[in-house]
Amino acid sequence: MSDPLERVTSFAEHAALVFGDMSLLRTALTHRSYLNEHPDLDWEDNERLEFLGDAVLDLLLAADLFRRFPQAPEGELTALRAALVRRETLARFARILELGDAMFMGHGEADTGGRERPATLCAGFEAVVGALFIDQGLFAVEQLVSPLVDDEMDDARDQVAGKDPKSHLQEVSQSAFGVTPRYRTIRSEGPDHAKTFTVQVFLGDDVYGEGEGNSKRTAAQRAAAAAMARLTEQPPAETVQPAQAGEGLTPNS
């Protein structure tokens, strides 16, 4: 086993991180598979720090986006934050820091591609954020994260702008209100070869949009677009309540 302190110090220097307590960074870099192979070590794995880092990133990015885009509605800010904290984006940040190479990881995990696995890299990056927050506070985290976000922002905005309405609505409604949109076909008119469908989309018990189209899919997309427009123009004053059981809504499809 290589000297743990040397590995941690080398990573900190490469990532331009300064830690008062290097054991925090060591913990952030420790995958649980490593402790399974070294049960004699009195280390902790990085899962608790991952939990903390996830919350710190949400707060930091919410504040950053709020300042960057003073005219953006809540729905757009929520979608942008979701794009920036999704697994693939955070894994990309981890690769920029070469975090995978620095992690303490069991041989089996490493041999099966663990050092490049997006879920593992994402968790490792969140753990480093959590460790840095404990060691030096939010400003130090901002110094690490802001340059990474700057480089990612254009792609995130393009992703949000190009997202189909149903996906966009689902992401926003789940992030902001904790509910999944539900769709109901309320009308089907015309001959079989030229039917027109009308679909409503519900958030909780309330209809948030309605759309028509020559297929249920098209009508649902238009209903979702109408719901996004409503959320953008007039966000709900209260938290959306989940739909009551038994109301017969069809799941998102």
Layout of helices and strands:
Blueprint: H1 4-14, H2 22-28, H3 32-37, H4 47-68, H5 74-85, H6 87-96, H7 99-102, H8 107-111, H9 118-136, H10 138-162, H11 165-177, E1 182-189, E2 196-203, E3 206-213, H12 216-233
Helix pairs in contact: 2-9, 4-5, 4-9, 5-10, 5-11, 6-9, 9-10, 11-12
Explain how this protein is built.
- It is elongated and about 75 Å long.
- The chain starts with a helix and ends in a 20-residue tail after the last helix.
- The model is unreliable at about 245-253 (pLDDT under 50).
- The chain has twelve helices and three strands.
- It is about 60% helix and about 10% strand.
- The chain has helices at about 5-15, 20-30, 30-35, 45-70, 75-85, 85-95, 100, 105-110, 120-135, 140-160, 165-175, 215-235, and strands at about 180-190, 195-205, 205-215.
In short:
By secondary structure, this protein is mainly α. Helices cover 60% and strands 9% of the residues. It is elongated.
Largest sheet: 3 strands, antiparallel
CATH topology of the largest domain: Ribonuclease iii, N-terminal Endonuclease Domain, Chain A
**How helical, in percent, are the residues?**
55-70%
Tally of DSSP helical segments: 12
**Mean pLDDT across all amino acids:** 86
